[in-house]
Amino acid sequence: MYWVTPRHLAGDDDALAERIGDTLASLGWRMWPTARHTLLYVSPDGLCGAEWILAAHPFELGGLPVAWQLSARAHADSVMPTWNAYFTTGVPYEVLVDLLMAVDAREAADVGFEGPETVLNALSARGWIRDADRPCTTAIDPGFSCSVSLEMLPPLIEDADPRPDLVGWQAWAEPVLGTPYLWCASFSASVPHDLVAAFASSLASPFPVPRRTVPESAEGRLTVVRRT
Fold first, then answer.
1. What confidence tens digit (pLDDT) does each residue in 54-83 have?
2. Which of these, 103, 129, 177, 216, is most buried using a 10 Å CB contact count?
3. In sequence order, what are the beta bridge partners of 86?
4. Residues 143 and 6: beta-carbon distance below 8 Å
């Protein structure tokens, strides 16, 4: 077992489904398999959902298959979620766990009052750097291998707001410039900024994470803090 930093390059240890499933079960979310061979989890109040959709292979972000989709509704019988967030394979599971804990702790996961600055402040507090050209929308890790940015939404990102040209938070890790992405995440326009800030703060955490294996593309960029 290795304990490694930085977290954003640690990968998912091939345990993304199990770790998130265990977290949701511990929070009391109900789960059942769907006809699409996915696993759907629903919060106790019926307002939030998390679905392991890798087997359905709905679409890709940055050339990587989307594995988890999170959503929140204003009412349990709402046809369309207020917002959605999508995460590919390779995303560190600790970051998703912290996001889910923040979602579960909220009384209303579909309503937000904080502005986008709260996301950038969370990253700056962890030592990330504001982009010189886009300081109000983008932050980059000190090693220039991971970005969190408020961008035009990619195709297929669903949101209850029907207006065109919406922006939402996007995050991705690229261990070496010009190489394939290690993971990508996309938040639709209506995701509350404080929830994205919880994701961002966990992503930029300096604390090491345990891994049995590390991504091959990130081996030269990871620091092994200790072995157990």
1. 999 889 999 999 999 999 999 888 888 999
2. 103
3. 69, 186
4. yes
